[in-house]
Design goal:
Elements lengths: L1 H14 L2 H11 L16 H21 L25 E2 L5 E6 L5 E6 L2 E6 L4 E6 L5 E6 L4 E6 L3 E3 L2 E10 L17 E6 L5 E6 L6 E4 L2 E7 L2 E5 L6 E6 L6 E4 L2 E6 L4 E5 L6 E6 L6 E5 L4 E6 L14 E5 L4 E6 L13 E3 L2 E6 L2 E6 L5 E6 L24 E2 L2 E6 L4 E6 L5
Parallel strand pairs: 1-27
Antiparallel strand pairs: 2-30, 3-4, 4-5, 5-6, 7-9, 8-9, 9-10, 10-11, 12-13, 13-14, 14-15, 16-17, 17-18, 18-19, 20-21, 21-22, 22-23, 24-25, 25-26, 26-27, 28-29, 29-30
Amino acid sequence: MVAAMTRCAENAMRQVDIDRALLRFEQSLASRNRRSGWRRPLVMVLAAAAAVAIVVVVSVSAGLSRHTAAAKPKPRPASIFPKPTGVVPTSQLPVAVENMSVAFDAVTVPELVVNGVLWSVQNDNALVVRMDAATLRVINKVQYAQVGVHWRLGDLMRVGNVVVLPAEGYWAVGAHVPADSGDLIPPSAIARFDARTGRRLPPIRVKLSGVDVATPTGVWVQTDDDQLGLLDPTGSRIARHISIPVGASVAYAAGRFWAFDVNSRSILGIDPATGHTVVQFPVRSVAEALLSPAGPDALLVVSRSEIAVSGRPDVVGTYRFDARALRLSAGTVYGGAPGIGPYAWAVDGPRLWGAVNGTLSEFRADTMQMVHAYKVTDTGLSQAVSASVPITPFTDVVPVAANRLYLADAETHQIRAFDLAPLR
């Protein structure tokens, strides 16, 4: 037992460094100060020493308790990132490919196609905009909030005859908070709409939201810190909950939920039935990452690192994670940090599409190799997920439907439609 205590104490001491302490401190404040960007200085040496001592004691106790508790998955060795593929020279996009566009008074992000209707979100004005997917003719606009500011929205997803939109936000400073806003959602709620008409339905009120994920069992939505709830087939109530580490995104592949843990810099695989972590895959050279699905058995790991917090340059780019073999199988320098590429990708069978800085790029999904880079004239094409427009979720799935790719232009406030048939 003495040896075990000594090993636990030594491990705890090695883990308590300033960077990781700050990282854990920020994580603990996530539910109250999401993306606030501030750090409280460590001003007293004695206080810091006391914190270290407390961590050592707690770690020793936790280490002893693990001898009797259920075994947790052992972290795998630090991952080796595959050599990323490069970019290819740009070529002009054929004129026939971009066949229509429509402008709005604010950034409008296309997210879902249901029965020939394109659904988009305009967060500045708290609107869902429905358009004919073939002509981009606006059918109707539906307000989903009143005076709340929603800084994080999930993806529009269909559940039976309902379309849902998880939202997390706050009341604007000085705003009058209505006692009852009817069907307009409060700061944290699951907005609901009739899938056939777009009519606003009564929301599902939750403590905290902003993340959703589709699985074979149904659509799961965030309902609180580190909690997901499964919507029933009618999309009208939460059927059951599980505890799960919910970060900036949750993805589903190979029968598991996947999330990125900033404390351990690991990709976590979670059993949907129990919420237990069954896989811990370290990616130590990435400080923060977003995960998005890339088919039934793979994920895209998009590094959001802009500065190195580990004393060495952090990995940037987009990498394919094989969720069954548990390995990073391919990557590209394109994607991740602002100015390099998109945070969001459109999955198109064996292809991936991304857009940034007026370039529409095509990739092979299995190798992450860039195949084409088409220059689109007169545009600030960025899929509305650039660092300068942080109003939409970084995990937006830009829809590809009926050979059309729909993208948002953050500078011109246009939705632009591209006919992919000539590029096949």
